[in-house]
Write a structure and sequence with these properties.
With 319 residues, the chain is an alpha/beta fold. The chain contains 9 helices and 13 strands. The strands form 2 sheets. A 7-stranded mixed beta sheet has the order 3-2-1-4-5-6-7. Strands 8, 9, 10, 11, 12 and 13 form a 6-stranded antiparallel beta sheet that branches. Helix 1 packs parallel to helix 3, helix 1 packs parallel to helix 7 and helix 6 runs antiparallel to helix 8. It is elongated.
Length: 319
């Protein structure tokens, strides 16, 4: 089939390669480069880079739904639009450019976690299982009928980037299966399984302030957020300083420590003995195993404690 790819981020790259191997890809529609040095170290577009490697022509319109662009897209004569990690909702007129409409690969088991950050919120909420869903697209966000689903357990220590990489590979095969369903579709009969709207949950885009650790939360909940909010916004806290601005600490790896009823204010340092940095939470405590002080490199707890003197009883910031 003639496929017009639409994607921007790294989650879409394995699908792009898979579709190129099995179908005729007539072009790539991607988002314009936008500098965001604080989050990604500068402007990047993995799908644009992949298109150059694969020899696929690309366009990066500000608005793919601008109808002045549609004649150029129609000239490509796509049978289907293949959308993944693109970043813009398609209008009915845009979907109508392809006789078979569009399929979208989403990083959750829809209707759970509709929105921009399904992988992050699945980990943050402590889910033990997730997966991917390929939908036949409608004008509503992530609401079309499900064509293909694949499930996978979430590893106990798995971070958002690690899970995203796994799901992107699982999703590539799922998209190929969905395209085969479309190949044999008569365009009249019901295709796929309608989503149960009553079971829909949201996965909104992450915000920087959501990374601030609330030590009043249970230790396991904080640990899940440390895993979920990598690489951005990062789970962070602050070490107060008497004469200077508080030092921001980004938590990269933590583990739950059962210290019984510690009776301390959440955020209190319970242990800082050169090997372990343990902090009281609303329930239990956390051992901070890998930490990145603002402006410094990532280091393990023992190295951090050699450079920063933190007394037992020190209270880290909490909202």
């Amino acid at each position: 089939m003639r496929c017009l790819m639409m994607g921007t981020g790294p989650f879409a790259v394995p699908t792009f390669h898979a579709v190129c191997r099995h179908h005729q890809v007539v072009g790539l529609i991607t988002r314009p480069l936008v500098a965001n040095a604080s989050r990604k170290g500068g402007p990047t577009n993995p799908m644009l880079e992949a298109s150059r490697d694969l020899g696929v022509a690309s366009l990066a319109p500000e608005d793919v739904n601008d109808e002045s662009l549609h004649p150029a897209l129609a000239e490509l004569q796509p049978d289907v639009l293949v959308v993944c990690d693109y970043g813009q909702i398609l209008s009915g007129a845009t979907l109508a450019l392809a006789p078979l409409g569009g399929v979208n690969l989403h990083g959750s088991l829809l209707p759970r976690y509709r929105g921009a950050a399904p992988i992050n919120w699945a980990i943050a909420n402590g889910d033990r299982e997730t997966g991917v869903t390929v939908i036949h697209m409608t004008q509503r966000l992530d609401a079309g009928p499900s064509l293909v689903k694949r499930t996978t357990p979430i590893g106990a220590d798995e971070t958002a980037p690690e899970l995203e990489q796994r799901l992107s590979q699982i999703g590539a095969d799922a998209v190929l299966d969905a395209l085969e369903m479309l190949r044999g579709w008569d365009r009249v009969s019901i295709l796929g399984e309608p989503q149960n709207q009553s079971e829909a949950t949201r996965a909104p885009r992450l915000r920087k302030e959501q990374g601030r650790v609330d030590w009043r939360s249970p230790a396991l909940e904080i640990r899940n957020r440390v895993r979920a909010f990598q690489p951005w916004p990062g789970a962070y806290t602050e070490l107060p300083a008497a004469k200077f601005q508080p030092l921001r600490l980004i938590l990269n790896r933590v583990s739950v420590v059962n210290v019984g009823e510690h009776g301390q204010v959440p955020g209190t340092v319970l242990r800082a003995d050169g090997e372990q940095l343990v902090v009281a939470c609303g329930q239990e405590a956390l051992s901070l195993e890998r930490i990145q002080p603002a402006g410094k490199r990532l280091m393990d707890a023992s190295e951090f404690l050699r450079g920063y003197r933190i007394p037992v009883g020190q209270v880290l910031s909490t909202p």
